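Can't attach files on this board, so I'm pasting raw text. These are the components:
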Amino acid sequence: MPGKPPDPAPISWEWPQAEPPSASGLLLARLRSARDRLAPASPVARALRRIETRLLRPPVIAVLGESRTGKSSLAGLLLRNSPQATSLNKLSCLYLAPILFRYGERQAACGVGTGGVRFALKPGQAPAHPLRYIEAHLPLDCLRHYEILDVPGMADPARDGSQLLSAAARCANLAIWCTMATQAWKGSEQRLWLSMPSRLRAVSVLAATSKDSLRSESDEEKVLARLRREAAPHFGSVMLVSSVQAREACKTELDEPLLEGLPRYLFRLVATQKDRTSVRAGRDELWKASGAQELFAGLSGVLDVVQANRQQSAARAARGVARLALGSIGAGNPATGIANAWTALAGELTDTLGRAAVDDALFARFAGDLSDFATNSLGPALRPVLGEQDCAEIGDLFRCSADDLAEAADGPGVEAARQQLRAILAQLQEELPEALGRLPEMSGQNPALQPLSELAL
Amino acid sequence: MIGEKTLGDWERAAADDRDLRIGAGLRAFCDEIEGLGKQLQTILEGSVEEVVSESLSALNKQQTQIAVIGQIKAGKSSFVNALTQMPGLLPTDVNPWTAAVTRLHFGSPAKPQQGALFTFFERDEWQHLAGGGGRFKELIERLVPGYDEGAVRSQLDEMRRRAELRLGPFFHHLFGQTRWYAEITPEIIERYVCLGLPLDEPLLEHAPGRFADIVKTADLFFGNGPFAFPATVIDTPGTNDPLLVRDEVTLSAIEDADVFVIVLTAQQPLTAADLALLRILHGLRKERVIIFINRLDDVSDPAFAHRAILTGVDELLRREFPSAHIPIVAGSALWANAALGMEHAGLDMLWCPDLIGYARNTGVMRPEEPPYISGPRALPPERVSQILFACSGLPEMMAQISKLMFRGLSGQVLGELGSTLIAAAESSAASARDELLGASTLSTIAIMDESLSNTRLSVSEDVERLHRLEAEASRYLQGMDKEVQRQALEGLSPLRDALEREISTFANEQAANLRASLLQGQSARVWRCDVVSLRNRIEEKVLQAFWEAGRRFVETQRQIGGGLRHLLREAAPDLDIELQPASLLSFNLTPPLSALSRPLTFDLEEKWWQVWWRRQAADEKARKIEEMILTEFFPVADELAMAAQNELRTYISSALQPFLIRCQSVVNVVRERQQRLLTERAGDSLKAWEMEERTKEVFARLKESERLGLALGASLKRHGMRADAR
Ligand SMILES: Nc1nc2c(ncn2[C@@H]2O[C@H](COP(=O)(O)OP(=O)(O)OP(=O)(O)O)[C@@H](O)[C@H]2O)c(=O)[nH]1
Ligand SMILES: Nc1nc2c(ncn2[C@@H]2O[C@H](COP(=O)(O)OP(=O)(O)OP(=O)(O)O)[C@@H](O)[C@H]2O)c(=O)[nH]1
Ligand SMILES: [Mg+2]
Ligand SMILES: [Mg+2]
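---
Top answer:
Structure tokens for the assembled complex are below.
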């Protein structure tokens, strides 16, 4: 019978003695130093990447207003009365966090925390991270044209909801401010609205909801007239809507043609008709009466304007990033590390841009890297030259306004943005040596830094 | 506080044959007191009789002021129309409409019983308003962070410009004038108190809103209307209007009202703006607020929704104002006005499944009643009105207002007048008793009343001594009211200093905290000044001092009573009348705390603060904060101390009266005794039969006084007033 195989020779876990630097050792060292030089450079690139991704996304419409002014109902209408949207919206009430509806092939929802971290929301459990907003994906076509941000009401009047509103306003391209038609445009609403960014106010819509609660056309006229007089200067447009009527009008199946079961907003309309049993006719009337048609028409016009604005601000932001990189580097101590890092990064970026089959994700990663670079590398270098306050401001600007930058970053399309970046790089390559050369006699008032304030919007 | 009764219960109560007018309870109480007082009057003489007739005439001067407040378009004017059962009287609209404070006087004593009086601003009053000075400016700066003051000024300029345009050449002649109309019509009211159309042109003679910008007050006079007790209902411009003048007008009008109806809406029950209003009231008169949640007709499925709305509001109120039990009523002014007849034309628009469901669910409509208003099985029109009115919440509102009127100022005053009458009755009884005892007719009395016979007669003084005693006692009581006042108020005088110390300590602490957190490298922007705790500390201090002063007030009265008793015991040991002091406790008196709810910089929103912090130099921040706390809170302390003193002074001057009457009555007894001795010494003592007559008479007076005293006491007690009687 076959015997047990002999024990193998014991393995030696000892690594052979270190040899004098070999070819691969040299390569490793060079790679490591290249990585060291590249690492700090990444944040600016990352910022640019965010600009890019934002650019690909449809504009965000924030539905804002005081508590119980019909925000969610209106958001529901903009989401084509999708029942999934309605049920997802419950999450927003549950967590008292805004909810952002985006396009997605599959229905899904997750929490988004600070720094963009995403995590699953488990019902009955506290969120794993501080929750900034909820992101919901729905396969609705309309979401390819706009995204919807709904803000939960503060059921508790003792709590200040203005924080939530202004946070939402910051990431919106367009807002619809909801006010109750029957108690429209109160002083507190005006104050809240006037504290929103002016770029938003100029394009936004004032929607007086619950139009159906006004009991005659002349009342509607009166309310509209007042809103046009008192509120219109702060808005792009003003309109009256009834979300419930619009929803009713959209229903495809016919209800029992009985007056008995009709809700009030339908009842009133049908009750005024001669042929009270004709619910179908009532539906057409309803759609007309609900103001939804006007709302959608108005919105599509506004969205065009928003798109044009986004392009402009993307161009501005890209220029800003370039100037920022330049200015920051110039203001630092003549730290050769920075110069090297920049050279490496710029080379890499040029390379990437030069490649024919450029991958968006790669490009975007560099944009993000650029922004990190500014924070980790430029910040410390600038501090001795610029003083604590300005440095902190620049740092803040990069860290906190990464989103802002990204948001401003729409542009003239992907290809054009690439062009833009190429131009930025070329300019940087040209101006950097000069800037570095000037460095020793530079004071805190570096003219290259002035555009910073422009960026801080 | 949500009532236990269902609407059905309210409706059945209405069907009972009770007096359902508003303030019926207070009227009944007043009538009782008045009746007993008049009887008392017939058996009294001298100074006590004067006091009683004064009290009786004061009884009829009482009236309750009910202010209706709330945000713009909550339905205040509609509610007033429903409450006063004059649908269509006050003009209503879908846009902000009421621009001037409108007082509706019902059965007001010494006022006309029909007509309307409109008073225009004085020129400088108006200019003051338009100049944006004083409190108005302060309010705006504090309430509206980052708001362009120029914008506010231009609001006011605009108002002035419009008034000039609308009125043309009359404009300058109208200042300080009044207009009187013997007949009231909605058109006239609309011309004076409503905003009118925003036309920039001279308005026609009768255009709505023609005079609105310059009307200071509008007074409308009516008979009793639905009120059993004189009442003034005050309709106010809505708060939270983008036009800030309205808030100011409303705030200034409500300061002396004593019952408040806050009108909310069912769609947005209790918003932050409503809460702010409630907080201000909480400081003024927290006890007398009723919440009416209007527009219940405007929510879908009210049968289901109304409970949730009510409990939601109730929970919030309990949390915010744990000690105040604020009644909450849900309803609809629209339904009420329809029931009252004006809007019957649109009945088929109102009579919807939601309403029917609500009426059934709340027990207003019986299950067997058909839900039709036309056709063969239609409900009779009166029944439809009944149902609408019951659902409107108005019956419950009327009952709640009646209840609060009792607890309001007029209820308190009635209680005090009742106490005064009791004291007068006691005084009368005391002197009658004394005369009976002092007279040498003990035997007669013994026959008439067993109880008096075992008291031994011990009147052995000579006239001189009684005279001296009386003089001494009178001197003792003279100016006592002033003295009591002085002593009680003295207790409050260190209050201001104490508050200022408290504030300084707080400011110091806060500055130290801020410094510490700045040292730890935290940003000043995240630091918030915890003024809530300071407000609480101040409130506690004021209340403490106030109660302490109240305690002293009682103490001083005890001393007076004791002193008097001591004096008397020497002369007439038999005259041992206990002198019960009046007490603050009997009326739940609280010092006014409205100054505390005034918004300060510290209440401003985050945004304002961020700007502020940025403007301050780093090392200045803590010092600036300290300074700011001092400058903001010192005036508050000052105002609180003043208000507490005033309140106490007013209270004491009315509450002291019954006590002093009792004291005086003791002195009167002595005087009368002295008088009798004098007569006897003069030798013309009464003949036996005269004596007997007199004794009978005095005895009757004694019995009557005792009976009236007891009846008054019982009446006070029955109406939940604390009688200061024994
Ligand atoms: N009659 C009528 N009711 C409406 C309309 N829009 C909303 N509502 C009602 O108003 C209430 C509040 O509506 P929501 O859409 O939840 O309002 P919201 O602003 O999202 O409320 P919060 O998130 O709590 O602040 C609901 O009961 C709706 O049914 C409308 O157009 N007509
Ligand atoms: N559906 C409904 N409408 C109401 C109700 N009460 C009032 N309204 C309507 O609401 C609007 C405003 O009512 P007003 O009584 O003028 O409100 P207000 O609070 O006095 O308004 P201002 O004085 O301008 O602040 C009017 O069109 C009324 O017809 C109600 O219970 N239900
Ligand atoms: Mg909502
Ligand atoms: Mg009004």
